[in-house]
Design a protein that fits this description.
This protein is of the alpha/beta class and about 270 residues long. It contains 10 helices and 14 strands.
């Protein structure tokens, strides 16, 4: 087998637009694991948001890896052992949250267990809770309340305003932080040391796998570092032009079993 590790983004990549893994993609990925290939779920979501896909793909049985927060936390699917974690400084986070209060964004924090917001009815708040199967609590002011060091600050933004808002945030962020787009309506502020590409390299080191033995799939801006770190970076057919330009190969869309098609063509799986 040419590849020993398959890394996949979730929304827009592994999942179709109905938030489901199709039967053909599931069958192919189970077959890959039976042949000794390990899976990595690589998402901007908190760790609990990966459990549904973890269970569908039987990753605990085959030694899979969960990369949450764009690589901010990496854990073993079977034991839950934390292999790597990076968090933001609490006072720096307070500063950023106060800055965001002046912008048209809805900040959403989490501690790995539940979400925290100032308004449960805010844009995409309930969507995020449902998508990750996590509860949500309201607090009067996130900056004043903050009792922990978060891995990231998630923000929901109206799609038409997102590019301008991202530019405004980037100009004001402390040097050690970055703002990345993870969906048409999401921005995230994370440490510059956190990205899916670095996460893949850390996983390779732990598993003693070389990057050329990794095939990675993605569709969004935050997937580009992962596609570039892998020996074979595959963009989904529904990916943005920038993602496709960064990939080694472009497959079918997430609604047309793009992962399964690429694994069959590039790795002889399926």
């Amino acid at each position: 087998m040419k590849y020993k590790l398959i890394a996949m983004d979730l929304d827009g990549t592994l999942n179709n637009d109905e938030k489901c893994i199709t039967e053909e993609t599931k069958r192919t990925l189970i077959l890959a694991q039976e042949q000794g290939v390990r899976l990595v779920l690589a998402s901007a979501r908190p760790s609990p948001g990966l459990y549904k896909e973890r269970d569908i793909l039987s990753m605990q049985q085959y030694g899979g890896i969960l990369m949450s927060y764009n690589g901010g936390r990496i854990v073993r699917a079977d034991t839950g052992e934390v292999l790597s974690e990076t968090v933001m400084d609490r006072e720096v986070t307070r500063y950023v949250l106060r800055m965001l209060e002046k912008l048209p964004v809805t900040p959403i924090l989490d501690d790995g267990v539940q979400f925290y917001v100032t308004d449960k009815t805010g844009f995409k708040v309930q969507y995020e809770c449902q998508n990750n199967r996590m509860t949500c609590s309201e607090v009067p002011n996130l900056a004043q309340w903050l009792p922990f060091e978060p891995v990231k600050i998630l923000m929901s933004v109206q799609p038409a305003e997102l590019p301008q808002v991202q530019e405004q945030i980037a100009k004001k962020l402390p040097e050690e932080l970055q703002v990345v787009q993870t969906a048409p309506f999401y921005l995230e502020i994370i440490p510059k040391s956190i990205h899916k590409g670095q996460g893949i390299l850390e996983i390779c080191s732990v598993l003693q796998i070389s990057p050329p033995e990794v095939i990675a799939f993605g569709d969004a801006q935050n997937d580009i570092p992962m596609l570039r770190s892998a020996g074979m970076g595959v963009a989904m057919g529904n990916a943005s032009d920038a993602v496709k330009a960064s990939a080694d190969y472009v497959t079918l869309s997430n609604n047309c079993d793009g992962i399964a098609a690429a694994l069959h063509h590039l790795a002889g799986i399926g």
